[in-house]
Specification:
Helix content is 37%, strand content 16%.
Length: 452
């Protein structure tokens, strides 16, 4: 304090920690600080110009500093502001005159344009070059489980071999939507050669629900990347034709007419307002007419066939069955009983919420070995789910009734098949049991309702 009173700041500065360390080259070696011409800025009694009078009685110090580095910088001032008394520090400030580089816009533009011309010339000579026969591919109408195929021709028009690959866009998990497949998705083309790329759309049972509900569309943008070159973009478009395959049981129970007679907007609205308990809408049917039509057909023409559900159907017949269900209500469906049986399994697999609703899945697995508990759970299903489940179980019992040999093996096969389809885990749920044991639990659950 004696040195302060005598205004011998330079003598006091010799004991400043930052000054000493910086002079030794220990800290801030490339920084500059102007000469300190103001008293220490810490610690004051708040609201005064008096240094600390508390019991700690801290030694005054220059705790507030401004250091700088760089070129074309001139410091004009460096001062404290003792008139500001709201803190136990006195703030400091510095004023600088700084030279800043500026760009000659006219010269910059000319240099930039010249450089871009040179780069374009190099690109044309040395970078991979391809042409596409088209960049927009419209598939028109796309229907359930009916392949729609288009071809994209990639021609190497450059002077060097080209390696191309379809790559995923930012935040996408794959290079194309789930319903689209690309063959080949990457390949190698020599100069002057072409490659036909097959683009196939196929809407499988697990994809239909989102397309029916308007949550997904036949729309995608493909990124064709040239190794060492640029990216090209191909637009995919089409119109998905809604089908009863992929509709919810609640929605189908509310449709008195074939699905094709219902405007697409009404279908989307119906699915978006679905109630899981099925109690908010008046339903003209206890079970979907499509389920009734397929099961009634199998009751009449298939229960005496010992190989039903054991032989695959014909794809062409399954498409005809789909069209019949979507466009008209009829007891006599086209195709063999094997095709109708496979169509039934597809229908059940495509349900957005399985016959055994997701919310009951884990309880059914846990109680699979307790018959009474399983029966109780089924009574809690939404009415349309419960009705379809009971109808299916009654149909399986009828099938077993007409089996004369190896009934136990047929029962096991049917229980395993329908267990996997009717009891599907919610998306994202990790299984709590090994796959084989889990499948056995599902089969046991079904067996509880069909065994004598």
């Amino acid at each position: 304090m004696l040195l302060l009173n005598k205004e011998k700041l330079q003598k006091l500065l010799e004991y400043d920690q930052l000054y000493k360390q910086k002079k030794k080259g220990m800290v801030f070696t490339s920084y500059t600080e102007a000469e300190l011409t103001f008293p220490p800025t810490y610690k004051f009694d708040t609201g005064t110009d008096v240094y600390d009078t508390s019991e700690k009685c801290r030694v005054p110090a220059w705790c507030d500093r401004i250091l700088w580095r760089g070129g074309q910088i001139k410091q004009l001032s460096y001062q404290s502001h003792p008139s500001l008394k709201i803190s136990d520090h006195k703030p400091v400030s510095a004023l600088f005159d700084i030279g800043v580089k500026i760009i000659d816009v006219i010269k910059f533009k000319k240099v930039y344009e010249d450089l871009m011309k040179r780069l374009d010339k190099l690109e044309n000579e040395y970078l991979p070059q391809v042409t596409l026969d088209r960049v927009e591919i419209d598939y028109g109408e796309v229907t359930f489980v009916e392949p729609a195929i288009q071809y994209l021709i990639v021609a190497n028009t450059g002077q060097v071999p080209v390696e191309f690959e379809f790559i995923k866009k930012l935040n996408d998990t794959g290079y194309c939507k789930q319903w689209l497949s690309i063959t080949p998705y990457k390949d190698y083309i020599m100069p002057g050669e072409k490659r036909d790329v097959k683009l196939e759309i196929y809407v499988s049972p697990i994809m239909a629900a989102k397309l029916n509900a308007g949550e997904d569309k036949i729309e995608d943008i493909l990124v064709l990347h040239l190794m060492g070159g640029k990216d090209l973009f191909v637009t995919i478009s089409g119109v998905y034709v809604p089908s009863c395959f992929g509709m919810s049981l609640q929605a189908l129970c509310q449709l008195p007419s074939p699905l094709r007679d219902v405007p697409v907007a009404n279908i989307i609205q119906l699915e978006s307002h679905n109630e899981t308990d099925g109690s908010q809408h008046e339903r003209p049917y206890d079970i979907p007419k499509e389920v009734y039509s397929m099961l009634n057909h199998l009751y009449e023409y298939g229960v005496h066939d010992g190989t039903i559900f054991q032989q695959p159907g014909l794809h062409s017949e399954i498409l005809a069955i789909r069209n019949a269900l979507d466009t008209a209500i009829t007891d006599k469906l086209p195709g063999s009983v094997h095709s109708v049986a496979e169509a039934l399994l597809m229908f059940l697999e495509a349900l957005p919420d399985p016959v055994v609703p997701y919310q009951f899945y884990q309880r059914c697995i846990d109680c699979a070995q307790e018959v009474a508990a399983c029966e109780q759970i089924v009574t809690e299903f939404p009415s349309c789910h419960g009705n379809v489940f009971r109808y299916l179980m009654a149909f399986i019992r009828t099938l077993l009734y007409f089996v004369n040999t190896n009934r136990s093996d047929v029962l096991d096969s049917l229980a395993m098949m329908f267990g996997r389809i009717l009891l599907r885990p919610p998306q994202g749920i990790k299984p709590t049991l090994p796959t084989r044991l889990l499948d056995n639990r599902k089969a046991t659950f079904i067996t509880n309702f069909v065994s004598e």
